[in-house]
Amino acid sequence: MSDLPTGVPPTVYVVDDDASIRESLSSLLRSEGMRVEVFASALDFLDHGQLQAFACVVLDVRMPGLDGLGLQDRLSAQGRDIPIIFITGHGEVPLAVRAMRAGAIDFLNKPFEDTDLLNAIELALSHVSATSHERLEMTALRALYDTLTAREKQIMAEVALGKLNKTIAYELGVTESTVKVHRHNVMHKMRLKSIPALTMAMQRLKSANAVSP
To answer: How many helices (H) and strands (E) does the chain have?
Structure first.
């Protein structure tokens, strides 16, 4: 697990009604330096409350009461975005397809190799890291965008559309030199080096609904 971020150890939530599975997985994962919390049922896990940010779930498919797929649906409905690795002793293809379509990282049939599970967990945690990095980048981009004046935001949007300075000046009723000044300010404040970078930044802001009307 050397490729995982250092610092706070990842947490793996193991949800399985089989005590022997919970014990064996807990021992394996702790030996790899991970924090482990085990639950005997899906409902016990739902009652857990706040989940760690750097974490994933190893989830049995078939359990009494609420099964693994049902728990996946509940987590999604609650907006609790955590990667899931399913384990099953049945190997039913339709279940695997449904789980993967709903965003599961992997679907492992029991008995599985330790390395297969560890690789799946590494993939899941890498997904968490990538998502967190994207959120941090988006937060920083929004903060820079919020430093722009209303006119600078307007100029940024026009430049991102590929319009020339003189066209923007004509449409806004200002001089071309005024557009150039605002354009320079936008590039400086947004810390952008090129127009393609500006265009990409505008697209990301729009996709996040962060662009002022």
So the answer is: 9, 5
Q: What span, in angstroms and rounded, lies between the C-alpha atoms of 111 and 18? A: 13
Cα angle vertex 32, ends 26, 34, to 5°? Answer: 65
Residue 160, token pair as written in the block = 């991102």
**171 Cβ contact partners less than 8 Å away, ≥ 6 residues apart:** 158, 163
Round to whole Å and give the CA distance between 93 and 78: 26
Q: Give the CA distances from residue 95 to residues 90, 92, 98, 106, 133, in Å, rounded to whole numbers and listed in that order.
A: 10, 6, 5, 12, 31
User: What's this model's pTM, rounded to 2 decimal places?
Assistant: 0.63
The closest alpha carbon to 6, from 91, 125, 182, belongs to 125
The low-confidence residues of the chain, meaning pLDDT below 50, are 1-6
Distance CA 212, CA 110 (A): 52
